[in-house]
Write a structure and sequence with these properties.
Helices cover 61% and strands 5% of the residues. By secondary structure, the protein is mainly alpha-helical. Helix 12 runs parallel beside helix 17 and helix 30 packs antiparallel against helix 35. The longest helix is centred in the last third of the chain and has 24 residues.
Length: 676
């Protein structure tokens, strides 16, 4: 990126110094060099036009010119030029020239001298020291250019316009040395003006109209190159936070990122209300601006790592991703940026946690339609696109995402997108995931119609007749008699079933957080029941193929995947993993498993993602009894009806058989295992 930045800077420099080159040609290159470095510095210090322009015209990519320029720098050029520029606030340019008896045509040439000498030098250490020297002495110049209301440089409006491009281009060269960034950042208004110049063509007609009067003396009268250079400067300001790559920004760095992200795109003295910089970046994408196109995504990602993006940015990016005129570059960048917007906490890819509120905003804006459209591009990263769909599923049991999915399910936009793009083999897995997400969303919408089962006898209960434990609110019964009879077993896990809410209360968390957790856990419980009974035949069949009794196993249901993944895991293996990953809950888990095994009930563990900032991956243990007394008996009956040759099938054939059996009515009576 730095090489490209230097290349762009070099290209613009070559097109801008034509006046200096013509003047140098008249002066004579050999005549100029014959003066010697010390004399040249002396003449420049006297405000002489020809030596100044001849020095500007030296080609940094020409070895001879580059070496001669460094000799001029060694002769004291930087100090002389900075001394002249430091008079920009208190003196008129005419007065300065009068004092010097000079004939320089415009003070912007001094800025161009600094700009060219800070671009490249044969001696890298000398170049670094020069950049730092200039940055440390740039205060008075910066004070002039950050004021785009008064717009005066050496007391002159024309000089301000003529000097704006070399000033921003000078900053672009300075920030190539990382040590200059904190120096420049300390000057009041510098970061603001760098951001705002990126939007002059969009927001500041007053400046553009005024610039037309001075176009003859300006290197960039339409401010387009200024916007590009300003974008590079902002990028380096952003890169300086979080080890230059967004990793683990400190609180101080987050604050700096937040300041940049929320900087107004217009000077508030000119207009009180405007977009923030982060929202403005999305508007640059929407306007098909070529300014820093790839860097815009990088800056947005950095802002996401700093957790300083508002919901308007998410809406804007997602809506932009649905446009029919996006290109291949957008198809690569939008998924990765969207991932960081909905998973704001910096972490390794596999450990990033989606935010319920951000996912909900993205869904409302059309995230799923956006993913389907982008997935059709051959160069898009399907791993990230499918990962975003899984992230949506992971928080689908949380309050805001659940509501957003329900609202989206009532509209036809997603169904139309599924029909439009679903025929492509490339996106088939994504289509299946999205369809699964909406099926589960519909299940939650019909939660009041889902039958509950009695923890004691396994009988199904209508919503109107369900009895709940008054303490944990999660254990359900068909009658008072069953509730009393089950208390001996239930009292061992009743307390743990209210642990999360109780813990949050003891930690002083708000009632809003407690309510969110309770609703989330209720949704997990409902979906866990639904997934289990929809797949009960396949679950029993897996245990048979594994040569294990179902009550000796734990049915692991991963609700963070779309569609949910089910694994029948040996009980000893599950307990061993539990001891390693969550030793604090091991004793409780072991007791529940052993009790269920003795009673012929199945132990299920429903994995879900915790509520924003409260807990991460969590497993809800469920006891699933059977009306006939034991699931082991049901498993034996199923096995006795199976053809003997089934056991000798290959693994692939067994999976196909499980899928076929899983679509049949639930085996055995079991109180009516298929939940409608």
């Amino acid at each position: 990126r730095r090489r490209q930045q230097q290349k762009d800077s070099s290209a613009s420099k070559n097109t801008e110094d034509t006046t200096a080159q013509r003047t140098a040609h008249r002066f004579g290159r050999s005549t100029f060099k014959s003066l010697g470095p010390s004399r040249i510095v002396e003449e420049i210090g006297k405000g002489k036009d020809l030596p100044t322009l001849a020095c500007i015209s030296l080609d940094g990519e020409n070895t001879s010119d580059s070496l001669f320029r460094q000799q001029i720098v060694d002769a004291g050029l930087i100090g002389v030029v900075l001394g002249l520029l430091n008079r920009c606030q208190g003196d008129k340019f005419e007065d300065v020239l009068s004092d010097l008896s000079g004939d320089l045509s415009c003070p912007s040439h001094w800025l161009n001298l600094l700009r060219n000498t800070t671009f490249t030098m044969p001696d890298a250490r000398k170049l670094r020291d020069t950049r730092i020297q200039v940055a440390e002495s740039l205060g008075p110049v910066a004070s002039c250019f950050v004021d785009d209301i008064k717009r005066e440089f050496f007391g002159d409006n024309k000089s301000w316009h003529a000097g704006m491009f070399p000033f921003i281009a000078l900053l672009q060269n300075l920030v190539l040395e990382a040590a200059t960034v904190p120096i420049l950042r300390q000057y009041e208004g510098v970061s603001d003006i760098v951001v705002q110049t990126m939007f002059y063509t969009e927001c500041r007609n007053d400046i553009l109209e005024e610039a037309k009067q001075f176009s003859a003396c300006m290197l960039d009268p339409d401010y387009s190159q200024i916007a590009a250079s300003a974008g590079y400067v902002v990028q380096e300001f952003v890169d300086a936070c979080g080890e230059g790559n967004g990793a683990n920004p400190t609180e101080e760095e987050k604050e700096r990122l937040r300041y940049l992200a929320t900087t107004s795109t217009i000077n508030t003295n000119y207009k009180k209300t405007s977009k923030t910089f982060a929202v403005g970046l999305v508007s640059l994408l929407e306007r098909r601006s070529t300014v820093l196109r790839s860097q815009i995504y990088w800056i947005l990602n950095m802002f996401a790592f700093g957790d300083c993006l508002d919901k308007e940015v998410i809406r804007g990016l997602v809506k932009y991703g649905q446009r029919s005129d996006i290109n291949a570059e957008d198809a690569v960048e939008i998924p990765g940026t969207s991932w960081n917007l909905i998973c704001p906490k910096p972490a390794p890819y596999a450990q990033q946690v989606p935010s319920d509120s951000r996912v909900a905003v993205a869904i409302d804006a059309g995230l799923l339609e956006c993913l389907l459209a982008i997935a059709t591009f051959g160069n898009s990263d399907m791993e990230i696109i499918e990962g975003i769909a899984q992230a949506v599923q992971a928080v689908s049991t949380q309050v805001k995402t659940k509501e957003a999915l329900a609202n989206k399910n009532r509209h036809t936009s997603v169904r139309q997108a599924l029909d439009r793009f679903g025929r492509s083999q490339r996106v088939q897995r994504l289509v299946d995931s999205i369809r699964s997400i909406f099926r589960m969303s519909a299940d939650l919408e019909l939660a009041n119609e889902v039958k509950h089962f009695c923890r004691k006898c396994g009988k199904y209960i209508s919503p109107d007749n369900v009895k709940r434990c008054s303490k944990c609110k999660r254990a359900t019964y068909c009658s008072r008699d069953c509730q009393v009879a089950d208390w001996k077993n239930h009292k061992q896990d009743c307390a743990s079933m209210t642990t999360t809410a109780s813990q949050l209360k003891s930690e002083g968390r708000s009632s809003r957080d407690v309510k969110k957790v309770k609703e989330h856990e209720a949704n997990v419980s409902i979906l866990g029941n639904k997934v289990f009974y929809d797949n009960v035949n396949g679950i029993l069949m897996r245990a048979i193929f594994q040569g294990q009794s179902i009550v000796e196993c734990v049915v692991v249901i991963d609700l963070t995947r779309a569609p949910p993944e089910i694994e029948v895991q040996e009980g000893a293996v599950f307990l061993s993993d539990n001891l390693e990953r969550a030793p604090h809950s091991y004793d409780h888990t072991r007791k529940v498993f052993e009790r269920n095994r003795a009673n012929g009930a199945i132990t299920a563990a429903c994995f879900s993602l915790g509520v924003d900032g409260i807990h991460d991956m969590a497993a809800m243990l469920k006891t699933i009894p059977h009306a006939s007394g034991s699931w082991a008996t049901v498993q034996d009956e199923m096995k006795s009806t199976m053809p003997s040759e089934i056991m000798s099938l290959s693994q692939e054939e067994k999976e196909a058989y499980i899928e076929k059996v899983g679509q049949m009515p639930a085996f055995g009576n079991g109180g009516g295992c298929v939940v409608q």
